[in-house]
Amino acid sequence: MAGPADDLPISPEELTAALASRDLASLVARLARERSWGALTALFRHAAGPRAPAALGVGELEVAARALALTLDAL
Q: Are the beta carbons of 33 and 24 closer than 8 angstroms?
């Protein structure tokens, strides 16, 4: 099981790739299952920051947040 020391930050490029593949919710769910809290925080920080991909909209964030909630409920 990964711990905080094992967390890798999510780069803007990784976020862009997840959005391009329409896989942001899967990435969020995987990070939650792995308990990569730092990576999840970094992902949502990038999503809210000035370097967020132009394709990132409220709908994608809602789906990602719902995936996070469902995964946390399962844990």
A: no
